[in-house]
Backbone:
């Protein structure tokens, strides 16, 4: 082989990324990954590297990017602390099925196991939270492993992959040849469905009198929004969503009956225990969705459409499992299902909605009392954005309120940390979302607690000039924990009150336009002003300090015991 | 729902990968399930490895665990069997002072009756090997214990299933040799 054709392992990494159509990386440099950063410098016209202010921010930004674009998010970090700082974002991506490839530098292979400077066993650490991970110690292995990494991250049920590359492998010279990975013999990304299961499911659907659909992110990850809509419109079945399924069906769709779960809507929660058929589509019966499993939909037959066989019968025993990508399986159900409408049954959801509206929603979104509510802020954002914004939320009360009241017209518009519940997710994820969908309005709604966990990413937003709109709903409490303390710990507010800094001054310190709203009269115009800006904008809204999120299924209670107050 | 605990032998066919043992044991760790024994070895197919793991859990749990194991990228297939569905054995080694072999007539009788083999004899010690079921190796342990065991070790279970596992079919290999 001609020695002149050889390239370094580090350059091979960059070329692999370009072959995989990557044009954006989030990351942070350091000793063990410097050869790769040196190549990034040379390839900066083809590959944009965004320097976050912390490696965790890089992972969440990559997640936000992946969730709105459907592409794989890519992260680079150095060894040791750089790598361990990725762990929270990787765990978040794993539980929320977000495709992500993380590349970490590692100490030179002759130092492995010697407790060298910035050496950490990131393969061992990341094993339980990755779909796959692999260490590379020879440059020649780089193309094959990276090709595999992208294939695994995005195929089947997506997830995070971590590739750890020793520094000597980055320097080593090699002959570069890239071939995309199309299959792995020990890995079957999408399981086969059986026609028998399809036919059995169809007959259950056709004979059901009170069917209920609960859909999750599988509809979005499968790009099956249209197939899903055709299915529900033909069968006329009311459909409720999990938090990660949100936005797959427009909010205003007549068959959209709201959210299930701990802070979901009254109707779908209560009626879960009255339906005669529950059709779960691309969701995994998380405990926040089901409440007490012993009393969950016991009266109903259950059909589960699912791509991951390990999710079938994991929490809830089902009658029929239709394996596979819902994009393929839903049309098979639609084809043989009889055209139907379930008017009386649907009207039950509407009656429960009326009760919920009177007892909860009205005061949340059209409050008459003095203090500003989180709900009215979300309503104003809906109105000002016409329901066209991507809403990125953090974790806690504001997240539940935003997901309950945000209105959506198109899919891939709700970005939140669902399964892991990672405070600090929203600010970097919003940056990623804006870069993944630059033409869309991106509004981050964040609590004052979570905001301060990754507040340093204001620096990244400022440096990239990404026009992210940041709304902090400030109640000077870790609100969700405080709510639990009030309800279940006799108001012993242990370490939940926050004495906060001047958030506006901090945003301005990063040269970001900023405003604080304390009065209702200023809210509408301030939100308008924020959305009219074509630059990043920060809006702090002082909301009521001790408001609670309802409805609520107390933990351990049944879905039908959902409380309105 | 019945939560009857059974002993299951799990057989896992895998690609060779450094991190896979970690990945598989993490599945048990996360669910607080004790691994009673674990062995790894090459399988009947070139470059394919086989794990044999013994656990005592409910049928519902074993089914869930198998799916979690199969979900791992480098796992080709995983199976579970009850004791009735497999042929299984363990091997035990017993190191005893040579003096007892010559002084105690009983020892020779014990070895003969238990169908154990003497693997090696040296001036100071001798080593007995016994392959069989757990109760057989345990019985021999108790029989030899009074004479002073210098060392005792027992392997994890190895097992073959009565029914075929058809790994070659899964891999699309032609095994009709």
Residues:
């Amino acid at each position: 082989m001609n020695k002149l054709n050889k390239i370094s392992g580090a350059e091979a990494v960059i070329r692999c990324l370009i072959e995989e159509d990557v044009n954006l990386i989030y990351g942070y440099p350091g000793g063990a990954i410097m050869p790769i950063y040196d190549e990034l410098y040379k390839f900066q016209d083809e590959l944009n590297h965004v320097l976050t202010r912390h490696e965790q921010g890089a992972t969440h930004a990559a997640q936000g990017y992946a969730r709105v674009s459907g592409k794989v998010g890519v992260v680079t970090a150095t060894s040791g602390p750089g790598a361990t700082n990725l762990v929270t974002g990787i765990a978040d991506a794993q539980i929320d099925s977000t495709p992500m490839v993380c590349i970490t530098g590692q100490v030179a292979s002759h130092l492995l196991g010697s407790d060298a400077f910035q050496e950490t066993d990131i393969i061992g650490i990341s094993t339980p939270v990755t779909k796959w991970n692999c260490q590379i110690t020879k440059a020649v292995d780089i193309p094959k492993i990276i090709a595999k990494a992208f294939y695994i991250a995005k195929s089947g049920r997506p997830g995070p992959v971590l590739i750890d590359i020793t520094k000597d492998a980055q320097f080593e010279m090699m002959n570069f040849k890239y071939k995309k990975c199309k299959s792995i013999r020990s890995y079957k990304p999408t399981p086969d469905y059986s026609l028998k299961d399809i036919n059995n499911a169809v007959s259950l659907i056709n004979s059901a009198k009170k069917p209920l659909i609960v859909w999750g992110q599988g509809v979005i990850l499968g790009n099956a929004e249209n197939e899903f809509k055709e299915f529900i419109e033909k069968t006329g079945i009311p459909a409720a969503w999990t938090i990660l399924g949100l936005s797959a069906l427009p909010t205003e769709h007549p068959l959209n009956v709201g959210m299930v779960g701990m802070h979901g809507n009254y109707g779908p929660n209560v009626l879960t225990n009255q339906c005669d058929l529950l059709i779960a589509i691309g969701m995994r019966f998380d405990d926040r969705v089901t409440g007490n499993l012993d009393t969950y939909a016991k009266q109903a037959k259950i059909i589960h459409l699912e791509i991951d066989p390990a999710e079938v019968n994991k929490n809830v025993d089902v009658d029929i499992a239709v394996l596979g990508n819902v994009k393929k399986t839903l049309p098979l159900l639609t084809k043989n299902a009889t055209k139907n409408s379930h008017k009386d049954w649907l009207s039950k959801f509407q009656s429960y909605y009326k009760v919920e509206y009177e007892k909860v929603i009205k005061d949340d979104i059209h409050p008459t009392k003095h203090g500003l509510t989180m709900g009215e802020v979300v309503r104003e954002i809906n109105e000002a954005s016409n329901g066209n914004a991507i809403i990125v939320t953090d974790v806690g009360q504001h997240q539940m309120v935003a997901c309950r009241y945000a209105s959506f017209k198109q899919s891939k518009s709700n970005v939140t940390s669902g399964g892991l519940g990672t405070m600090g997710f929203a600010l970097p994820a919003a940056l990623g979302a804006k870069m993944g969908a630059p033409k869309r309005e991106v509004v981050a709604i964040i609590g004052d607690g979570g905001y301060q966990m990754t507040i340093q990413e204001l620096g990244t937003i400022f440096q990239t000039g990404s026009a992210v709109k940041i709304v902090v709903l400030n109640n000077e409490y870790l609100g969700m924990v405080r709510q639990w303390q009030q309800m279940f710990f006799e108001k012993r507010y242990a370490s939940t009150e926050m004495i906060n800094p001047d958030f506006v001054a901090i945003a301005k310190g990063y040269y970001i336009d900023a405003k604080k709203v304390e009065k209702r009269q200023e809210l509408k115009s301030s939100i308008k002003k924020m959305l009219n800006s074509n630059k990043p904008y920060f809006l702090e809204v002082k909301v009521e300090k001790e408001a609670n999120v309802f409805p609520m299924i107390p933990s351990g209670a049944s879905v039908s015991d959902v409380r309105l107050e | 729902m019945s939560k009857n605990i059974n002993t299951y032998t799990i057989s896992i066919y895998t690609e060779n990968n450094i991190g896979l043992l970690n990945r598989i044991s993490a599945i048990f760790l996360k669910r607080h399930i004790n691994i009673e024994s674990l062995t790894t070895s090459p399988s009947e197919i070139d470059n394919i490895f086989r794990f044999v793991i013994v656990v005592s859990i409910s049928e519902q749990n074993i089914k869930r665990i198998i799916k979690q194991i199969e979900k791992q990228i480098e796992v080709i297939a995983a199976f579970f069997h009850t004791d009735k569905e497999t042929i299984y054995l363990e091997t035990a080694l017993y190191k005893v002072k040579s003096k007892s072999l010559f002084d105690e007539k009983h020892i020779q009788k014990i070895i003969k009756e238990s169908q154990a083999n003497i693997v090696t004899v040296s001036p100071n010690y001798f080593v007995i090997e016994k392959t069989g079921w757990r109760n057989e190796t345990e019985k021999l342990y108790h029989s030899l214990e009074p004479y002073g065991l210098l060392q005792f070790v027992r392997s994890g279970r190895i097992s073959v299933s009565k029914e075929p596992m058809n790994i070659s079919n899964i891999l699309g290999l032609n095994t009709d040799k």
User: Anything to note?
Assistant: Chain A has three domains: 3-175, 195-349, 374-542. Residues 195-349 of chain A form a domain with the Rossmann fold fold (CATH 3.40.50.1220). Residues 343-365 of chain A form the longest helix (23 residues). The radius of gyration of chain A is 24 Å.
